[in-house]
Amino acid sequence: MQNNIATTTTTTTLNNGVKMPWFGLGTWQARGGEVKAACKWALTAGYRHIDTAFIYGNEIEIGEAVRESGIPRDQIFITSKLWNDFLRKGPDACMKAFDDTLQRLKMEYVDLYLIHWPVPGKFKDAWRTLERIYEEKRAHAIGVSNFMVHHLDDLLKEAKVIPAVNQVEFHPRLSQQPLLDYCVKHTIQHEAWGPLMQGQISQVVELIEIGATHRKSIEQVALRWGLQKGSIMIPKSTKKERILANASLFDFELSPIEMARIGALDQGKRVGPNPDDFSF
Ligand code: NDP
Known about the structure:
Elements: E1 11-13, E2 19-21, H1 32-44, E3 49-51, H2 59-69, E4 77-82, H3 84-89, H4 91-105, E5 110-115, H5 123-135, E6 139-145, H6 149-158, E7 165-169, H7 177-185, E8 189-193, H8 206-214, H9 218-229, E9 232-233, H10 240-246, H11 256-263
Parallel strand pairs: 3-4, 4-5, 5-6, 6-7, 7-8, 8-9
Antiparallel strand pairs: 1-2
The chain binds NADPH dihydro-nicotinamide-adenine-dinucleotide phosphate.
NADPH dihydro-nicotinamide-adenine-dinucleotide phosphate (NDP) binds near residues 146, 219 and 235.
């Protein structure tokens, strides 16, 4: 259990030595001037990690926000992701997609590049392309997203580079403990998407009482729980007050009893697609 995460800039060390902040800003469904403003508020508030993807259509604005923040590039951790269509088209399309991502960001490297979804029959080929990108040092770390245990087992049989990260749906209603254990065992850092259940966490009323003990909101309790479970948290908001509130996680700690109470809320409930059954 992680209790030593002290600030928004505290990092975990990935299996290749790269340091990745435990906390960052999600940006799905945030575009244009809205995402740019959100990134700037976040960076001013101490966030040093931004999560994007080709499919979010916001890499240009995120690159602009990083440059306009005046914070040196090497102090900000940027993740992007390879979209499914490129996996289906093959290795050349994957490499071009990565080149285009760097061009939109106007960056020489990303800190982390992920395969967005485990497209059946395609993700092992795509991984070889990510390994090349990694060898070229244009991604300081490479990883996967939405991989279940069987996908990871399959990939690890052939991978030269062990994925540094697996980003999956994770929140108190979907803890997928065996997947988390697998990641720990194989030195793959677990990262959560949808840590606030894409806005539905407010319906988990069991968190209210724990929040009241610590004078924290349901959202803050859910995010703190995730961090203490050992998962990287990237809540998305485009609202300044929420961006600030979501980062107020480092002045309290959940007790083992509270952690267990939240752990017992798991219902295997997804708010997003099932990685074994998606059609996009
Ligand atoms: P989140 O669980 O982060 O929830 C985001 C939603 O919650 C938004 O509607 C936001 O609204 C709202 N919200 C944020 N903070 C608060 C708050 N304090 N109180 C009440 N409501 C709040 O869902 P996401 O799906 O966005 O996941 C986080 C990130 O993970 C994404 O943005 C993306 O970067 C990544 N992701 C990755 C996926 C993958 O396949 N790898 C899939 C999905 C997401 P508002 O903006 O109006 O504040």
